[in-house]
Specification:
Number of domains: 2
Strand content: 15-25%
Largest sheet: 8 strands, mixed
CATH architecture of the largest domain: 3-Layer(aba) Sandwich
Shape: globular
Helix content: 25-40%
Number of strands: 18
CATH superfamily of the largest domain: Glycogen Phosphorylase B
Radius of gyration: 21 Å
């Protein structure tokens, strides 16, 4: 099968979307399928042998730390030349607009996946007035697809209520060979704790943006001298956060990848995830695979992944101070160790294969192409 993936974000950028895409594309290629990726041109031209067709990218006034590709006729040109069996537009918004319209004009079966709750983000940037317009725009794009997918049952239910068409849940996954407790490194822990490895090390991994509510962690550091914090990632909110955490036991690492990231997870004690705006949060799976108990906001997507009191602790974002009180329960080392073991046990058999197989099944369903190999025949 020939598969075209049009995505707003891809390598060398790193986020949950890129992690999911690269894992599934790798599996598809190993199964003998042909994949072409259309993405913002950030200097990477191939991935595991799959061609990446770049579209000129630029920074936008409201998000200077990342480059985006605007709608561009190149997308239609690339698709027409490639002649794919299916087009999968990932998180259609800007470049994805061109992916949706080009696939429709060329008559190619279209799948769209929803990964980011942009409408909810509006509340953090004093733009709540535009939430209705945002929902209208995304619904209009997604409903041109024959099949829509999202990453949690909670989001599926919301999209259905908002009249999105034919919505399915894409299974979660994690690389349990990359992320595991055995990646612990005493030297990494020394760095992440700024030379005080005896402290309990809290870890945050992800994009540094206002909607992530990372500021909440400072109250923990202010209320107890037992903890240190490592913040892994980057984004438009970094300078604000650096000022906010000034004078506390906090280390900012910027982005970490591969083995470095795996070592950071395994060398920490507790993973903190204050955000209430996630559609899934793949970092939760990576933390659990690394043997970290979690503290996360009680929300639909987190409840689908974390069993409160067994693999992590869920706090109530509506209760003042509940995040701090919940994290401080991990001053009890016996509790921390018990939840750490359970977290790894719950996820150690997950992998990415099931999610990739599920995606291929959807591609086959929407195209009418079935068979064992990449040389399938269309059903008549």
């Amino acid at each position: 099968m020939k598969i075209a993936i049009v995505t707003e974000t891809f390598l060398p950028s790193t986020d949950g979307i890129v992690t999911r895409l690269t894992a599934c594309i790798d599996w598809l290629l190993n199964e003998g399928h042909d994949v072409q990726i259309i993405a913002p041109d950030l200097g990477v031209s191939t991935f595991k042998g799959a061609e990446i067709k770049g579209v000129p990218a630029t920074t936008l006034p409201f998000y200077r730390s990342k480059q985006f590709a605007l709608p561009n006729r190149l997308v239609k040109k690339y698709l027409a030349e490639y002649e794919p069996d299916v087009v999968h537009v990932v998180n259609p918004a800007i470049l994805g607009y061109s992916g949706v319209t080009a696939a429709k004009k060329l008559g190619i079966p279209l799948v769209a996946s929803y990964h980011t709750n942009v409408a909810q983000y509006m509340e953090y940037y004093n733009l709540s007035l535009f939430k209705g317009l945002i929902w209208w725009y995304f619904r209009k794009l997604h409903n041109q697809a024959g099949l829509n997918i999202c990453t949690s049952k909670t989001v599926q239910e919301e999209l259905i209520v908002r009249d999105f068409y034919n919505v399915h849940v894409w299974k979660r996954g994690v690389d349990t060979e990359m992320f595991k407790p055995g990646k612990f490194s005493s030297s990494v822990r020394e760095q992440l704790t700024a030379g005080e490895p005896e402290r309990k090390l809290l870890l945050y991994v992800g994009r540094l943006a206002a909607e992530k509510e990372i500021e909440k962690v400072k109250a923990v550091l202010d209320s107890s001298d037992e903890f240190a914090l490592a913040i892994v990632g980057d984004g438009p909110h970094r300078s604000v956060l650096e000022k906010h955490f000034e004078g506390t036991h906090t280390v900012f690492t910027g982005f970490l990848h591969g083995e470095q990231l795996a070592e950071a997870y395994a060398s920490a004690d507790v993973f903190v995830f204050p955000s209430t705006t996630e559609t899934l949060g793949l970092v939760i799976g990576e933390a659990m695979a690394s043997g970290l108990p979690l503290v996360a906001a009680k929300s639909g997507p987190t409840c689908e992944q974390i069993e409160d009191g067994r693999t992590g602790l869920l706090y109530d974002p509506a209760i003042d101070g509940d995040f701090t009180a919940t994290v401080r329960q991990f001053e009890d080392e016996t509790l921390r160790k018990r939840l750490a073991v359970n977290a790894r046990k719950d996820i150690e058999d997950l992998g990415w294969e099931e999610a990739a197989e599920q995606l291929l099944g959807w591609y086959k369903d929407i195209t009418g192409i079935h068979g064992e190999s990449g040389q399938q025949q269309k059903l008549t």
